[in-house]
Amino acid sequence: MPFFEYQNAKMHYVDLDQRDDKNKGLTLVFLHGAGSSLMIWTLQLLEFRKHHRVIALDLYDHGDSEDINHPPDIEEGFTGQLAALVEYLDIDDFVLVGHSMGGGVVMSYALRDDVRPPRALTLVGTSSDLDLSKVGPGLIIEALEDHTPKYDIEEISADFKTFSLVNFQENVTKFHPATILKDLQACHDFDVTERLGEIGIPSFVMVGEDDDIIPPHVAKKLEIALPRAEIAVVRGSDHTPMVEAPDSFNKLLEKWLIWVEKNT
Length: 264
Known about the structure:
CATH superfamily: Alpha/Beta hydrolase fold, catalytic domain
Number of domains: 1
CATH topology: Rossmann fold
Number of strands: 8
Strand content: 15-25%
Strand order of the largest sheet: 1-2-4-3-5-6-7-8
Distance between the termini: 34 Å
Order of helices and strands: EEEHEHEHEHHHEHEHH
CATH class: Alpha Beta
Shape: globular
Low-confidence stretches: 146-151, 157-175
């Protein structure tokens, strides 16, 4: 498994690329949500590696990354880890894809002027304000129900996609209360609503039609507030549409990526 050093801790990531022509296709960088890991993106990493370079990060104290024992923080701490990965892998011409808390990290990254700029953002089941009084109960449910399979992505065959999602959901990592508490605190302190107008790059807001944590009407507000955004409601899914409706999710994302490549 690949790692890089950040603030004296080992950070785990995956970097997959099956393109015949390495000069074609945008690089995609995926970031997980609260209490989760990069494995939440398994069905996207397997699919999009065919035509894109795909990268995913375990934030500190998640997945196989070590804990750097810093106070939980989205706008500086988590975003700093993402920026370190981008620099370490020397990534350019990339799209950031963030789920839930990871969406907050992605927005915070886009608001910084001291990092390599992404070409576009994809914001999945997220909001510019993750105040616990609004999303706390749902975030706890998310952490308990995150669908994180016990597999090494590099060793998964294409046949993995034929597994039922029921089996996929049964293979979850153990619940770590300390990590969840840190994530919830970081979410509670996160609010970039007043700065959304500064994000001038194309943004794709995706939300499950049955999401109780970030309902479609909340996602719609995010789309309206972003200067260059579109929204897609993924049918047959709730807070993790990339797992619950992967075929629909992947088709919507691929269609939007084609647009980004042609129009930006």
